[in-house]
Amino acid sequence: MDKIIKHKLYTIKRKIIKLLYEIKVFFSVSGKGKRYDFNSAKQYWQNVPKAMGSNPWNTEKLKYISDEILVVQFKEEQKISREKFERQLGYKRAFESIKDIDNPKVMDYGSGIGFYGFEILSHFPNAQVTFVDINQSNLNIIQRIAELLKFEQQITICQVQNKKSLDLNFKNTFNLIMSMGVLHHTPFAKDIVSHLTQYLDSKGIFLVLLYNNHYRKRLSQNKGYRLNHSTFGELTDPIIDEIKNPYSDWYDDKAIDLFGHNYNLISRDYPTPDYNTYRFEKF
What confidence score (pLDDT) does residue 51 get? Predict the structure, then answer.
C-alpha cells in the first residue's frame, strides 16, 4: 500500500513540476519578432526541403548537375516521400479531390521542386498542373524535370512576384489548389487564399498542410521560452549558409479562418503530431 501511495504522490509531483514549467515557458517570451522580408524568404526558399527534412536541395546548384543525375535524385526522393505518412495522406486527399474529373486542372502553390504536382501528373494522364513558386530557380528545375519525364506539354510554371500573390492572374480556373507545407511560412496566408479563391471552380478543393500549435509548443518547451513567428521559423527549418527561415506560423482551427465564408471544411487529418491537413470545398 505504501508503494502505491508513494507512486501516486510521485506522479502528482511530476505533473505539478511539468505544469509549472509550462507556465514559466508561456510567460517567457522570446522577444519581439523580426519583420517579415519577402526577398529574404525568396533567398531562403531556393533551398527546397527533402522528404526527410535535412540536406535541402539548392536549386541554383542543381542546374549544374547532369540530366541523368537530376532524374535519379528526383526519383529517389519521390520514393522516400511516398513512404512518409503525411505525404501519403496528402497524395490520397489530392487524388480523391479530382478522381471523377476527366481533365483535371491543378495548381501546386509553393511547389518547391514539384513533388505534389508531379505525383498528380504520374497518376492522372490527362491532368494539367500549374506550378507556382516565389523562386524562379525552383521553377526552372521543375521545367527541366518535366521535360526529362515527358510531362512538358502538361505543365505551366508561374513565379510569384508579390508577397500577397496579388500579381497572379490566370485565364483558366482550377479543380484543385494544393499548398502543402507552404502557407505557414508567410504572414499573408489569408490574403493569398483570398486572391487564389477567384481561380478555384465552384465545388473546387483547396488542400493545405500546416504546422499546428503542438509543434510550436513542443519547440518552445525545448527552448525554455515561448516562440514567436521568427524564432519558430528558425527552428522549423535548418539554417543554410547562415541564412535562416524568416517566418513560420502555427495553425489548428485557426486554419478555418484562413478560408472565411467561401468554403466548407470537408476533411481534417492529423498525420503527425506537428502537422494538420485540411481540405476545403468552395461554395
Answer: 81
